[in-house]
Amino acid sequence: MMPGQPIFILKEGSKRETGKNAMQNNINAAKAIADAVKTTLGPRGMDKMLVDSLGDIVITNDGVTILKEMDIDHPAAKMMVEVSKTQDQEVGDGTTTAAVLAGEFLRKAEDLLNQNVHPTVIASGYRMAAERAKEILNEISTPVTKDEKVLLKIANTALNSKGASTSRKTLAGIAVKAVMQVAQERGGKTVVDFDDIQLVKKQGGSVEDTQLIQGVIVDKERVHPGMPVVVNKAKIALLNAALEIKKPEFDTSIRIEDPESITKFKKQEESILKEMVEKIKGTGANVVLTQKGIDDLAMAYLAKEGIYAARRVKKSDIEKLAKAIGGEIVTNLDDLSADDLGNADRVEEVKIGEDHLTFVTGCKNPKAVSVLIRGGTEHVVDEVERSLVDSLHVVAAALQDGKIIPGGGAAAIEIAMRLREFSASVGGREQLAIEKFAEAVEIIPRTLSENAGLDSIGILISLKKDHADGKKNSGVDVVKGKPTDMLELGVIEPIRVGRQAIDSATDAAVMILRIDDVIATKASSAGAPKPPGGKGGAGGEED
């Protein structure tokens, strides 16, 4: 081999970036993602229109929805999407905040890299700063109980920056009532299972027509026109059994040689179905909802008895119904008794647009509820659903954690101020990283101000002065354009929103900073023609 000749170990067409080049490219990609969602932050944030390859449109200002819908290819940019996804799964709100913070951490780290500070030192400083930031959040937090007024403020804060903010009073009330209704105490802790809150979207009407149903909406209609449309004081049987003749699991054939036997055979089937209906009627049930099918003849018998029935109801809906009406799901009709029935004030078939739905309402203390979401267009209904999901999650997080922090960038300014004091006690090169972390956190109040068309520098100076004077709840009032006490204004959020945003953003920034080598292998094309000379080209050997 000739001296100095390069050795190729990667597949032809593979790309490799090393050292500062690799770092710079990753940081630039992450910053581009943060910049893409930055303008959506806060009550005065703008929306994005995303059009996919099929022409489907999504209009939203929800950070995680924007990043999910964007067709992102760069590996470092994909990490930023994961930051938002994690924030969404853990808290439901603050997805834009987490992405913007991660981008700003990397932007500030870039300054230190240019000063030849080692990435590992920056990562170490960022970790220390993140731990201290979470401690500061805990120190400035305020305890919260099941106070409906406070929970309404939390829901309002989450909705304030959404497209459905004009109807936030209605939606916030629905979110708080829904969460309070399904919340349960287990081992001294409040637990909220979001599977117990059913969201049903129906286009039409206005956002103000969105309503909370103390019960469950079943996306099925009554199976026979002779059945009652409305049943008051309903006694409901929930079945996971078919009201039809069971077919054998193996192939069978019956030979009938005279017409009389055919009549007897049909009458036998009729009597079995009639007996099934008699069993249901005997328990006192006047509504039957089953996961399985109902025979045509059984439908007629049920209608004759004045029993409302719906078939092929989704398993998830049946389970919600059991929690809402206090009934038991029965898998064998022979086991059905009056004790298994659930109760509701009203069961009725309602037509919304072209769809017929069954509303089970007026349940006493239901442990599962439904929200019927309305809106003028499909895009509005989708955005209302996203907004409502966020507000449901923050209310639940506040109940579960029992602590709230001021919004409007107040917590960010307090963290930045105290981190600068903390950095002096650390010393060494990590001190530089902690100071840069503190600078990066200030991006939140600055962006809130910029998006509202305010003088961001002037507001930051005023905020820092307020916090230096001990006003730890002072944040950006984007309406009046000046610093205001966020607790008095009612702009509050659960501590989990801030804590998770710091954790996710720091983890992503540190991971991207520690990458100094990117090897991208080219995908092999399965159907590509092979070069002459066997598998390995000219002179190639067979395996």
Structural account:
The protein is built from 17 helices and 21 strands. With 543 residues, it is an alpha+beta fold. Helix 1 crosses helix 3 and helix 4 packs parallel to helix 17. The chain is elongated.
Q: Using only CA atoms, what is the Rg? A: 31 Å
- Helix proportion range: 40-55%
CATH class of the largest domain: Mainly Alpha
Which topology of the largest domain does CATH recognise?
GROEL, domain 1
**Terminal Cα span:** 25 Å
Question: How many H/I helical runs?
Answer: 17
Task: Give the SSE layout.
Layout: E1 15-18, H1 19-38, E2 48-51, E3 57-60, H2 63-69, H3 75-90, H4 95-114, H5 119-140, E4 142-143, H6 148-160, H7 168-182, E5 184-186, E6 189-191, E7 197-203, E8 211-213, E9 216-218, E10 230-239, H8 259-282, E11 287-290, H9 296-304, E12 308-310, H10 315-325, E13 329-330, E14 342-352, E15 355-361, E16 369-375, H11 378-401, E17 403-406, H12 410-426, H13 430-441, H14 443-451, H15 456-468, E18 474-477, E19 482-485, H16 486-489, E20 492-494, H17 495-513, E21 517-520
Helix pairs in contact: 1-3, 1-4, 2-3, 3-4, 3-17, 4-13, 4-17, 5-12, 5-13, 5-17, 6-7, 6-11, 7-11, 8-9, 12-13, 12-15, 14-15
